[in-house]
Amino acid sequence: MASGQLFSKTTQALFYNYKQLPIQRMLDFDFLCGRETPSVAGIISPGSEGFQKLFFGQEEIAIPVHSTIEAACAAHPTADVFINFASFRSAAASSMSALKQATIKVVAIIAEGVPELDTKQLIAYAKSNNKVVIGPATVGGIQAGAFKIGDTAGTLDNIIHCKLYRPGSVGFVSKSGGMSNEMYNTIARVSDGIYEGIAIGGDVFPGSTLSDHVLRFNNIPQRRRMTLTNTQRIEALEGALEELRTGVEAQQEGLSRLESKVDRQVDTLKTELSAAMRNTILGLFPRGPPATPIKGSKAQGAMAGEGEATDSSTRAAGISGAARLFKDVGGTWTAPTTDFKLKDVQLPSFDGHGPLDWVARAEQHFVLHGVPEEIKVSLARVSMEDVALHWSHWHMMKHASASWIEFSQALVTRFDDRECQGKWLCYKCKQPYSPLHKCESKYVNVVVKDDLGNWVAELREMRDGEFTEEAEPTMQVLPLYALAGFSGPRTMRLRGNLLGFRVTVLIDSGASHNFISQKLVLHAKLNVDTTQEFNVVLGDGRKVASTGVCSKLSIQIDGAEVQADCHVFSLCGVDIIFGVVWLRTLGKIQMDWEALEMQYYSAGQQVTLRSDPGLYQGPKTI
User: Fold this and answer.
1) 175 DSSP assignment
2) What is the tally of structural domains in the chain?
3) pLDDT by residue (tens digit) across 208-250?
4) Fewer CB under 10 Å: which end of the chain, C or N?
5) At what angle do helices 91-99 and 116-128 cross, to 10 degrees?
6) 336 in helix, strand or coil?
């Protein structure tokens, strides 16, 4: 190894406190860089021994698991890097134990919040024994094309984008792991890329400092540039600012176009509403407005051209508000000018909330402006928004001649939510509410052809389940513990075999359907039907779409063959989940939850499935 260089393409590490994702990311990076051997030589899990299955490319490998640091170092003398994923409570003790091993040269401490006194002791011991400590509170480090620690540089997509799969010539050191990722990208754009990058961590007393690594970079022949020059930094910043400026200008231009489009749509809507209002009023009084006397007056004036003449004062008193409105919207009848004008009446909008308050405010407007009874409902319908607008349209089709009193009573009945307060009822359908509650819609927006062959939108009432098949995509339920790979109260874990791949199977009576890990689908190269779209309801109420269905899979479990269709989903810690859909096909089942054993009959033969205790895991607290 060159002087000052920490890692190479043959570097191997011991991983303390098993974490599947960062280890798998290290192995994926190894395969991408063309390493012949995995960079993880062994895993240290206190109290456990055996092997852990992981993927190196498309091959499944078994990495040894040791119960102590001493045993792991003795079994893997060439592993000189110790990656410590222990919590802050035990990170110092395990790191000191690793530093005392002759084979360990570099210790990376991921945990945050390690006591400062413990960190100082680690620093002093490392310096006196010519060893290197990276962290605490670090994401790790990377040597491009050779070796990386844990989650350094993130996903494979980011690694490829930053060209970290091959060595560059720039050395970079930072406190922040997030800043490191950003700079890897920037450096790859303005130079030949990173040779080595280190994140020392953000604690007050880092195990190694910025200057320690900068001085070490000077002794690496392959490193031709330590950091970017000022000119390059300015050019990179100017380029980034120019991209940002261009993006902002594009967004502003898009917003301007959107505002113009919205303004045009608003103008169009106003024109259509005015025309609709005019047609409604003219339709109510095709022969001219009625002569309804104002309440409290003794005038019985006649309409012009329909009866005997009266004096002008009496006739003016007898003219109804509808007659004046008839004139405003384009009618041919001429009425004397009075106080009421349609343009002066602006009712507050109503979107379904607070119906009693809205009705009270509308009544005040009607009294204040002297609105005649004949047009109150029409004015109210114009003020509807959102769900109230849909309801008003349906109500108009069902009750075209409803009076204001009938309309307001129907509105309050539909939208009054006082009965739901404090009773855990849904404000929409008045049924018991829960996080997974879904209202049974009574109305459906449909598009149909009218008698002239034109497509028109209608709001139809649902009866006897009509339109329910199109109301919403199929929903499936998947508990959160199954998604995370943990064992629930009514679950069984078993080992199985799918096309030669050893798989972990979870039988879960809390899952509605069968699921298969997306990673297993990729490695086994299974056929996926992506035309079937399903939504999966997780245990916290969120809805996530599955990516397809693998049909007629044949899985061998304890000598029995199980066939099922499985929905592709991102799972952790488990490869296949059998839910209620599969359990229902078995007929009568005998379950022993204490012994975790189930029995059923298939083709006249009794089948017994026993859970594998070695596969159980649950949430752990450190």
Assistant:
1) S
2) 6
3) 998 888 888 888 876 555 554 445 456 667 777 888 888 888 8
4) C
5) 10
6) coil
